[in-house]
Amino acid sequence: MRWYIDASIALHALLPGGDARALRWLDTTTLAGEEVFSSTLLQLELTRVLRREELDVSMARPVLDRVNQVSIDDGILRFAAAIEAHVKSLDAIHLASALLLDAGVVLTYDQRLAVACIESGPAVAAPGPCSDGVDESDDLTGSEDGPTVSLRPEEPS
Known about the structure:
The protein is an alpha/beta fold. The chain has one domain: 5'-nuclease (Rossmann fold). The chain has helices at 7-14, 20-31, 41-52, 61-64, 74-82, 89-101, 111-120, and strands at 2-5, 35-39, 68-70, 105-107, 123-125. Strands 3-2-1-4-5 form a five-stranded parallel sheet, sandwiched between helices. α7 links the parallel β4 (105-107) and β5. α1 packs across α2, α5 crosses α6 and α6 (89-101) packs parallel to α7. The longest helix is centred in the middle third of the chain and has 13 residues, at 89-101. The two termini are 26 Å apart.
């Protein structure tokens, strides 16, 4: 399966005080040989947060080394611009990248991106509840060991 992660997951995997389940999921998934992807936008986002927090930018390396990064080109930018769901520009780039990669699941703690994914196709999950804009009532919960709940609406019977 192809997994796609955004910066909300990656930041929790690397920052002190982040959700340890994000790091545990990344460790388990990559050790199992499964492919984890993100846009090259991920490196920019992680670097900017680390600089803002006055942390060493090399802290991002352990996460970035486990993620296959896809370059942003004009095609991805055009695809992102065409996304009708209401998401911020950077999230639209993440969604466009995930769709073009045919990712099976997008991992995010970002509620707007999660909703846009549901509307656009990929399943959505998160390693566990997070206080970064995702309400536990949004059912973005998983087991202690990783994401288990998809936000894809159930098919009518």
